[in-house]
Amino acid sequence: MTRDRRLSWINGLLLPLFNVLTAFIATGIVFLFIGVDPIEATKILLYGALGYDEGLGYTLYYATNFVFTGLAVAVAFHAGLFNIGGEGQAYVGGLGIALVALYINPAMSSWIVIPLAISGGLLFGALWAIIPAYLQAYRGSHIVITTIMFNFLASALMVYVLVNVLREVGEMSPESGDFIKVSWLPFVHDVFASFGYKIARSPLNLSILVALFFSAAVWFFLWHTRWGFAIRAAGKSNEAAIYSGINPKKIIVVTMCISGALAGLVGINELMGVQHRLFLNFNYGYGFGGIAVALMGRNHPIGILIAAFLFGILYQGGAELDFELQNVSRDIVVVMQGLVILFCGGLEYLYRPVLIRFLAPIKESK
Amino acid sequence: MKNTKHSHFGGIIKKSALAIIATAVVLTTSIAQAEIKPAVVYDTAGKNDKSFNEAVFNGITKFMNDTGIAVTELEPTNEAMMEQSLKKFAQRGYSPVVAVGFTMANAVAAAAAEYPDTQFTIIDGVVDAPNVQNVVFKEHEGSFLVGVMAAMASSTGTVGFVGGMDIPLISRFECGYKQGVAHQDSSMNVLAQMTGSTPAAWGNPSKGGEITRNQVENGADVVFAAAGGTGMGVYQTAADMGVLAIGVDSNQNYIQPGTMLTSMYKKVGLAAYQSFEAAMNGTWSAGFTVNGVAEDGVGAAMDEYNADLVSAEMMASVEAARAGIVDGSIVVHDYMSDNTCPL
Question: ipTM of this model?
Answer without folding.
Answer: 0.71
